[in-house]
Structure formats: C-alpha cells, structure tokens
Amino acid sequence: MVILETLAVQVASNISLFFILGVIGTALWGDGALIFFTAFSVNYKISLWLIFFAAYIGTMIGDSLWFLIGIKLARKIEKNKKMYKGYKKIAFIIDKIFKHNHLLALTVVKYLYGTRVITIFYLAKEKIGYKKFIYYDFISTLFWVLGVGLIGYLVGLGFVWIQTAFKNIQLTILALIIIFILFGWLQRAINMKIGKLSEK
What we know:
mainly alpha, globular
C-alpha cells in the first residue's frame, strides 16, 4: 500500500505525466479510465478541468482511430459472429429507436458498456464520412465527459469522505470496488435489455 501511495503522489505532483496518462487511458479504456482519473483528481486536489480536457482529447483520438479501422474492417465485421451480433444490436438502436439520428445515438451509446467501438464501426460502415463523424463525436464526447466525469467526481468525493470518516484505506478501496461493480452491472443490465429488444 505504501508503494501505491508513493506512486500516486508522484503522478499527482507531475501534471504533465498525469495529463498524458489521462489522454492514453481514456483513448484505450473509456469510461473506466475517466471515472478513475476524475476520482484521483478529487483525492489529490488536481484541477478537474485538466482531466476533462485530457479525456476529451483522448476520446476523440481513440474514436477517430476506431472509425478509420472500422472503414478498413467493414466487410470483416459481418463474418465475425460476435462482432456482427454487437453490430446488429447497435444497428437496431440507431435504426429503430433513434430513427437514424447518428448524433443522438452516438451520444447515448457512449454510456452503455461495450458499445462504443461497435457503434463507431456501424457509423464507418454507414459511410457517413470522417468530417461528419468528427462533428458528431465532438458534441457527443462533450456530454459523455461531463456525465461520466460527474460519476467520477462523486466517486472521488466518496473516497475522501470514507477516508476522513473511517481513516481506513482498506474500507475505502472496498467501497470503490463496490461502486465500480454496481456501475458495470447497471451498464450490462441496460445492454441486455436492448439486446432482447433487438432480437424481437
């Protein structure tokens, strides 16, 4: 625990390193990384705007890369059963629920577990064009950063409160794990509901 605390203090004291880790983390791991880094910011008194900005850049970079990969893999998606099943689910959401409103769909699915990449592949397959995709992603990422960032902020406040109230790092870590599990469970429950709708 002492080693982790020392490492955390070093990262918190190096703003440039923290920013770079925020960009890379959100580009690769999305909401999990944003919640972690926002909670970390609250705990170590780092500007929330810094991590929000890093998350914004990281997400835009990550989404752009996935979009370009999706263009290349458009035909292979249909041959991969697991990927095509996810693609079908997203296609149902966008076509039936959002009436082909790609901006609204991209904004909403960013909050659903495991749908970000498949949605981007769907948009690439729809051939909406990179400029239009970036425009949609620019707006949807803003809402996503603020929404998921708020969850991370509340997690960070909870972390600080538990530490202050109980002065027990093990209890604090347990509380954080429970919060992450509940968040993941909620996302999966929503996905399963949408999956059942898409199979009808």
